[in-house]
Amino acid sequence: MALSKIFTIRFYAKNTGFFLVLFYFFFGIVPGGQLPAYHHTLIKGFTGTPEFLALVCFIWSLYNLKCVAFIFNLLSSKDHTFLYGTLGLLEGMQKWRTWLWLHITIYAPVLIYGGISTIVAAKSGYYMAAVIIVVFNLVMMTAPLALYVRKMKHPGTVSFLARWQHWFNRTFRKPIWSFYGYELLNNNIRSLAISKIVTAIVIILTCSVMAGKYDERMLLVGVLICVLAQSILVYNHRRFDDLYLSLLPQLPVPVWKRYLQNCLLYLILTAPEHILIIVKTWTTGMPAHWLMLVLTGVSLMTLFRSLLYMAGIDQDRYFRWVVIAIVVVLFLGLAHLYWYSIILVQVTAWCLFRYRYYRYEAPLEKVD
Questions:
Q1: Do 107 and 205 fall within a single domain?
Q2: Quick count: other Cβ atoms within 10 Å of Cβ 160?
Q3: Would you say residue 164 lies in a domain?
Q4: 184-208 pLDDT, tens per residue?
């Protein structure tokens, strides 16, 4: 079928690297003889835990959005305007069947794994999880069809997301310190989503390992892993400032205020992880420990940003210092010296920031 070559084959060819990584994660990290047991345990794990199942469904919905975005981009390209003269002529059930088939062919990996998960969940007695998976995938298959049909009827229209972004940018005044956050939401949503998915999995697994026995040190380890996973976002923050906010130091803003603005930005970026921790430990946790975990994550990310003002620090040196800082905080945490570690990190971050902020010069390759 010609449409399959245009949509399906092109989709899998374009995302070859993505599927190779996915294949390695699901089939390459364990020996061949242990694959059935590995996947059976994995499926029982997320079908038997409501929070884990919600996270899996969220990941599947992100993949579905990836499929929808691919089809929309293909329909919007100049090389495929002829599709409006072919698919646009379809009427009745033939139109819906065609779009359903095209969407299923690229949504198939989730559909196949979801089908297997449904069978395993039903055999394990998790009937509600099986129903949720079936209903969820039915929605994921059918909901985009109306969008495709509307796109064929109105090829020049702007998507709802784009209209919402334009309205939001016109209506609300954004402070300068929040520009990087808006950059992540608008142009780097994939990096942000991947980091949040990873950190959510880490927190859920950390709380599962505790098995009802509350241990703030275990939570601290989970937070440190989350911070490590998001350190790349801090590294990209420097590149964004170098490219678009290089004149920022010339504005009449006190250095202490700039430092607090960085802390506030990272507090907002790490808010989903902190909220998830509080929700997962609501009955056993302590407010003092929650505050400690929040301050630890924000302090470390602020320290990472301050490190990037040092002269001659490249990506390798940056991640080396990131690992060193996390190890130091880890050992202090294991010794129950939580607040001392926070003070140490904050004092170091503030000293670096205050000393290097106005002396920092962006590398030439960053501003060309």
A1: no
A2: 9
A3: no
A4: 877 777 778 888 888 888 888 888 7
The domain of 269 spans 176-367
Do both 358 and 262 map to the same domain?
yes
Q: What is the pTM of this model?
A: 0.69
364 has a pLDDT exceeding 80: no
- Residues 277 and 305 reside in one and the same domain: yes
Q: State pLDDT tens for residues 1-19.
A: 567 777 888 888 888 877 7
- Residue 202 to residues 6, 44, 178, 191, Cα–Cα distance (Å): 38, 18, 26, 17
Is position 169 within any domain?
no
Asked whether residue 165 is domain-assigned, the answer is no
Confidence grade of residue 88 (pLDDT, cut at 50, 70, 90): low
* Among candidate residues 88, 123, 157, the one where a domain is terminated: 157
Asked if the structure places residue 115 within a domain, the reply is: yes
pLDDT recorded at residue 245: 86
Give me the number of domains the chain comprises.
2
Do 234 and 316 have their domain in common?
Answer: yes
